[in-house]
Design brief:
- It is a single chain.
- It is built from 22 helices and 29 strands.
- The strands form eight sheets. The chain has an eight-stranded parallel barrel, surrounded by seven helices. It has a five-stranded parallel β-sheet with strand order 17-16-15-18-29, with helices on both faces. It has a five-stranded parallel β-sheet with strand order 20-27-21-22-23.
Length: about 650
């Protein structure tokens, strides 16, 4: 390994378990499990790729110890002996490459989903029914279902279930287990004075609130014996009013270490918290590390810290500063499972960096498979059937240098094709490069830079020219990929002066002439980002949020909608949901909501439209010249960068 990363690649032994470096893959839900909770070949291949890439320790995703404690219909289970064989196969695949693996045991408490479990969620207390964020302008979060208070007999049963699941993990040959005591799930709910309002032996002061956690640790240790690694995941802070504080956590950490915990993993946040548990691009790198550093001062056991640590050199700095003993790099390893191996070789330029866009959390319409996805690593989730070398090398022409075109070019070149990419502008990146101009979204440019480096290494020839039919005819490619993107369009609205209308890609430029009062219309994520940029420039902004066809996406699952709404509220931005501008008349804007109601707003100096239409007219003429012509990305249908990247990858694999 590089001498500069001596701390990161220093082995560590935890309760007899030798871990080859300090890089940890924390538990992350994938959606790759079978409906009955058993592990799939897809899931095994996903983790084997991480082990092969050089990670030190993998913590397998939250695995339910009780079917009534599930949060998802496709969650791994370890509540029965029939699941042991699957975890044994997982352990073998990971150990084959020298990595260590724990399974995270979890009961989701009041966040369990009744729609999947068929039962009312349970928790330490039924109240509160909602809680406030710790924020200058607090907002309320309300769990989807009201909880029922657990009886002491039920608590004893759950404690036994944790122990039994841990015993199965040991029988499967795993290196240990992690008890999930963070993020507002059952154990975390007992630890927090906000969600634990009991007045019996399990609630009240800290001594009683920590009792369930200690009983679970004791039962797990009884089931697995002394020589099995036992980790505990805990919130450094809940980041909601009345929740668990860092002072609470340090007190708990001392008791947990004394009870036999070998490793403490420090995270933060519960549902509705700001900053959120899965921090987006707007948040700084390593934002939870100060919590781990403080906890580390109170315990002798090793501590894992993290929170958007995406660069191995940053991880090295954190270790050298004594902030933690190991570093969680979850989404970073999803973006590039080879990150440890590349870092050890000093190949920092070859790493695909996580940009914190949180689109990995989407369940989007139009994707071929269920589960997590990645913008910068379209091969995520396809590890069991990676892009194979092409049967014969062909000449592929890619037209358009946005993320769809770059993804198609990189994938085709990696498979052995000769690739030329034509982009009429002087730069690559398309809409991503434009969005990267928005304050707080600069890391989109990192994704573009990483793709450019891939193209360079793969020998893709980039030509900055307009690929007209004449140019294509002269080049005589075997196949063409049209990735010409989408154009922002201004809809025709009665009474609206076209001179006051600006497309979103123009509006976000620093030199754009925008009036003080602005109305932004468009789909949620893009419209919110544009509104955020304008509000930061001192504009008075109203967002007319066009309804989305498929609502279960990153805006909900990753709490990005919640995060952005709070951020916009602080800037005084008003949001009119599920609506569209109907007309402008008599100095006012009339907005029609989806339910048919109309809302009157003051007229604006500027109207910004964040709505796009595909730009694929070139494809029809090219098919007469090159019969094998594919259309990808926004040129096929305007969607998010995730779809564009996967469109390009899919076509690159098929060429």
């Amino acid at each position: 390994p590089m001498p500069a990363l001596a701390a990161l690649f220093q082995p560590i032994v935890v309760n007899g378990c030798a871990i080859r470096n300090r890089i940890v893959q924390p538990a992350q839900g994938t959606g790759f499990t079978d409906a009955d909770g058993s592990l799939t070949p897809r899931l095994l291949a996903f983790h084997e790729a991480k082990a092969r890439g050089g990670v030190g320790l993998i913590v397998f995703e939250a695995t339910a110890v009780d079917p009534l404690g599930k949060i998802s219909p496709i969650q791994p289970m370890l509540d029965d002996d029939r699941f042991i064989a699957g975890f044994a196969a997982l352990a073998e695949r990971v150990h084959r490459h020298g990595a260590r693996i724990l399974v995270q045991l979890c009961h989701h408490g009041r966040m369990s989903a009744s729609v999947f479990t068929g039962a009312q969620p349970v928790g330490p207390s039924a109240r509160p029914y909602a809680w406030r964020t710790v924020h200058k302008r607090p907002h309320w979060f309300r769990p989807p279902d009201r909880a029922r208070t657990l009886s002491e007999r039920e608590i004893a049963d759950i404690v036994k279930r944790f122990g039994a699941a841990a015993g199965r993990a040991k029988a499967a040959g795993l290196d240990g287990v992690e008890i999930h005591g963070a993020h507002g799930y059952l154990i975390s709910e007992f630890l927090s004075p906000l969600t634990n309002q009991r007045r019996d032996r399990y609630g009240g002061d800290r001594e009683r609130r920590v009792r369930v956690a200690l009983e679970i640790v004791e039962e797990v240790r009884r089931q697995v014996g002394p020589d099995f690694l036992l980790s505990f995941k805990i919130n450094g802070a809940d980041y909601v009013h009345g929740g668990q504080t860092l002072e609470d956590t340090c007190w708990y950490a001392e008791r947990l270490a004394a009870a036999g915990i070998d490793l403490l993993s420090v995270s933060a946040g519960i549902y509705g918290a700001l900053p959120p548990t899965i921090p987006p691009m707007w948040e700084p790198h390593g934002l939870f590390m100060h919590l781990a550093a403080t906890v580390k001062q109170h315990v002798a056991v090793p501590v894992i810290g993290g929170g958007r640590v995406v660069d191995p050199r940053h991880a090295e700095e954190l270790l050298r500063a004594g902030k933690a003993d190991l570093i969680a790099m979850g989404r970073a390893l999803m973006a590039d499972p080879e990150l440890p191996r590349k870092a050890a070789a000093g190949d920092f330029a070859g790493i695909r960096h996580c940009i914190g866009c949180n689109q990995c959390l989407e369940l989007p319409e139009g994707m071929p498979e269920f589960g997590i996805h990645c913008v910068v690593n379209p091969g995520l989730g396809r590890e069991e059937r990676p892009a194979s070398p092409a049967g014969r090398s062909r000449f592929v022409l890619v037209i358009g240098g946005g993320i769809a075109g770059m993804s198609a070019a990189a994938t085709a070149a990696a498979r052995g094709h000769r690739v030329i990419l034509c982009e009429r502008r002087w730069f690559l990146g398309g809409q991503l490069r434009t969005v990267a101009c928005v304050p707080g979204l600069a890391e989109y440019q990192v994704a573009v830079d990483d793709l450019e480096e891939q193209l360079r290494r793969l020998g893709v020839e980039v030509r900055h020219l307009e690929a007209t039919p004449e140019v294509v005819r002269d080049l005589r490619p075997d196949a063409v990929v049209v990735a010409t993107g989408a154009e922002f369009a201004v809809p025709r609205i009665p009474g609206l002066d076209p001179a006051r209308c600006v497309p979103a890609d123009v509006a976000i430029r620093a030199d754009a002439e925008i009036g003080y009062r602005v109305v932004v219309q468009g789909e949620d994520l893009l419209a919110f980002e544009v509104a955020d940029a304008l509000a930061q420039r001192g504009k008075l902004v109203t967002v007319v949020e066009v309804p989305r066809f498929f609502p279960l996406d990153v805006m909900h699952v990753g709490l990005t909608r919640f995060y952005l709404r709070n951020r916009l509220a602080l800037s005084g931005v008003r949001i009119v949901p599920s609506a569209a501008i109907a007309r402008v008349e008599d100095g006012r804007v009339v907005v029609a909501r989806e339910d048919g109601a109309e809302i009157s707003l003051p007229a604006a100096e500027t109207y910004v439209f964040a709505q796009r239409h595909p730009n694929a007219s070139l494809a029809a003429s090219l098919r007469e010249i090159v019969p094998e012509t594919h259309v990808v990305g926004d040129a096929a249908a305007p969607r998010k960068s995730l779809h564009a990247a996967h469109d390009g990858y899919r076509v690159g694999c098929a060429l």
